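Human:
I keep going back and forth on a fold encoding question. Comparing notes only helps if you start from a blank page. Show me how you would write down a chain together with its backbone fold. Write it directly below this note and I will take it from there.

Assistant:
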Amino acid sequence: MSKRFNDVTLERQDKWYKEHRKSFDDVNLTYIPYFRVMDLVRSSGMRSKIPHFSDCRRLVHVMSHNERCAYLQLLHNINILDIYEQFAIPLDASLEIANELGVKHPLHMHSSIPNIQTFDFVYYSADPVTGEVSWGAVAVKPTAEVEKTRTLEKLAIQEAYATLTNMSFHVLTSDNLKGVYSDNLICLYNHRSLKLQTESIFRIWLINFLGELSDGQYTSVCKLLEQTSSSTGVNYDLGVHFFYHALWQKYLTMYTNQRLMLELTATQLGLVSCE
């Protein structure tokens, strides 16, 4: 059932928060974001649900295209263990912080009820060398919004809570998120996983592709894929899937500002092996 905020009460908010928090704290439950795409909450973006990167039980609720891009960029750039979207800040904590900062706590529209604040994303990651786990929180905003005084006040509440709970805090704007890099990630994300029956052949394919790549820097990528697929004994479409998977999993890297077009040469894409 969707949340309706036109007649919200503190009691209903507390119930929603406890359900949300329980789903986060209990590893046996599927995470429930505080806000979901079906909830009647104001949003200026295009809402959508996308598959979680590793948990087949979960759908990730994003409230805008910017949030979708932020989710993919986080996954691709940080040693992520998990990401939690629309993560609620306890109301008593945000009220105290707002009071200490001397700013007005956000209220529900047409109401004097304090509105629970959320991080767009909370994530935890592991250092690849030490294994040390750290937490971070992310706010996603249109670039023009972060110049507004009221937006900065709300972000200050979020940043203060992040500091109190030993989380780093980042603000990602549409200038950081929209562009060729995000468009490429949207394409690659659909190829993040391999089917079990193709995992063993992928390793053979990758070795063969790297061999073709070393000798064919000025050959179009589609030609390299044709040659690799032929030598590996897989069809071309599966070879393309393997190629995109290798890019997502960083067996290969490419220029982040170059649109992913297979008719370009390896040099034009900036293809480099990470093996």
Remarks:
- The chain has two domains: 10-178, 196-273.
- The chain has a mean pLDDT of 93.
